[in-house]
Request: fold
Amino acid sequence: MAASPVGLTTSHLSYAVVPDSQQPAVVSATVHFEAVISSLDVVLTVAEAWKGKLGILVDPPEPATLQELVQAGRRRLRDDRLRADTEELHARHYAVSTVKAGLSS
Reply:
């Protein structure tokens, strides 16, 4: 099992909550966790692809005008948001995977 992500909070456990179901608890939880993990895997794949694509872009020269400064700020904000979103998705994935592994054992 991977190391616990930095910044993992109790709010991440909300992704490990199983909704009520008519099926037995273990079966319902397993199906739910597999669906959540599958969904998170798809979103993580897209986020990682965007990170890879953004890494290819050439860094612009030092901003000289106000417009270039604004563009540089937007680029940095976009990169920071993508990094934070990816870290959040990894934390959710870790929480759900850990609960599912504990349920399976």
About this structure: Helices lie at 25-56, 66-104. Residues 66-104 form the longest helix (39 residues).
